[in-house]
Amino acid sequence: MSKLYLVGVGPGEPEFITLYAKRVLEEADVVAYPVKNSGEKSAALEIIKGTVNIKEAAELEFSMSPHLSKREGSRQSAAQKLIEILKDGKTAAMITLGDAGVYSTCGYVRDAVRVAGFEIETVPGIPSFTAAADAAGINLCEGNERMAVVPGIRGRDDLERLTAAFDTVVIMKAAAHMDIIYETLAEKGLLESAFAAKELYMPGGGIFPVTPEKSGYFTTVIIKKHG
Amino acid sequence: MSKLYLVGVGPGEPEFITLYAKRVLEEADVVAYPVKNSGEKSAALEIIKGTVNIKEAAELEFSMSPHLSKREGSRQSAAQKLIEILKDGKTAAMITLGDAGVYSTCGYVRDAVRVAGFEIETVPGIPSFTAAADAAGINLCEGNERMAVVPGIRGRDDLERLTAAFDTVVIMKAAAHMDIIYETLAEKGLLESAFAAKELYMPGGGIFPVTPEKSGYFTTVIIKKHG
Predict the structure, then answer these.
(1) Chain B interface, mutation test: which of A47, A115, A128, A140, most B Cβ atoms within 10 Å?
(2) Angstrom distance (rounded) from CA B125 to CA B16
(3) CB contact under 8 A, B13 and A20
(4) Residue A123: its chain B contacts at CB < 8 A?
(5) Taking the CA of residue B61 as centre, how many other CA atoms within 13 Å lie in the half-sphere pointing to its CB?
(6) What is the C-alpha separation between A145 and A227, in angstroms, rounded?
(7) pLDDT tens across B78-135, in order?
(8) pTM score, two decimals?
(9) What is the nearest CA distance from B106 to chain A, expressed in angstroms?
(10) Domains of chain B, earliest start first
């Protein structure tokens, strides 16, 4: 029966995939993996290749072009490719880093496949930001604490407001804002309460202090005020 | 070698445990499980009993008494019980629903065990709120969207401010506030953009519309404005 599974494969450590995700991927007729440019290695595919035995793989290109029309065109092509697989009566499983509902490429194809009339099931994965807190050995949130999760900040005032109103602030895609984040946290005396997860569970990655230098794409800063 | 693992076993579906969590639990000398009252069934232990073969189980009581001193006393006793296991040179794995860093009982013992000088490793689990969004088939957050995660609300004004400032609002432990949540969302025209995950992956549980009746302990409301 045609069905699309959107499968989170976790933050990068192969054993952080769930038993269910492994089973779904091994039973699927086609495993579709996202890349930024055709022919490139897929981070999601690299994670599962040692632990999951798949039948067939299909590449989905999600352009990171600065031109919106090019990005949207590639998303439509990817959705169409999945729909063609489903029209053949096959099950398809699209893999993504972390969880498919949290800032994932799966978001770009979900609606198109649903509108085309096919069943979709989302298979949970370990989100990168909870894995980062676990790797740092902190309680991300506890008791009455409140958490904000944002994909980047809109300037110094924005970060000040967030840290004033929330016990925990998670800044995903923080790479380009490390200078402002560092300066704001230093001024507020919050550097000791913060850390950066950079390319966590990828080569050379890990948990680091917050510093002002620009960093790699997979950078998440977590500020835990009462940590 | 003595070591404490804090292991998230996910939201309730046995196959939502990771390969790594399964391995850690099967290798641990003792698996410690939380209960509210001694002798009760442990939800976390129920999740793993069909898929994980453990060597030995130990109960940890975390009182839900209205008296803080009783709650804190039981937390200290639980930490001491873990420390005794570790002093015997054993590895212990404490299990918890969801992820050990997200509003979990593990938060109550982490510091005491660390201060006692033992190594601690947190093993990620699928958090209940991302699993709830996955079960509902929505993108919890995408693109430039921002998310707030709160353990209950502080009244109508609080919820209005949260929904004004964030694209996605996750209200955990929402059970006691369903009337205010329902009324506020109805007034703001947001009922269609919200759902309640009640006892998800537990008997009789699932994804439901938001209604004003008080509900069970494991109730999470998710509001996704542009869903």
Answers:
(1) A140
(2) 8
(3) yes
(4) 134
(5) 11
(6) 11
(7) 999 999 999 999 999 999 999 999 999 998 999 999 999 999 999 999 999 999 999 9
(8) 0.96
(9) 8
(10) 3-123 (3.40.1010.10), 128-224 (3.30.950.10)
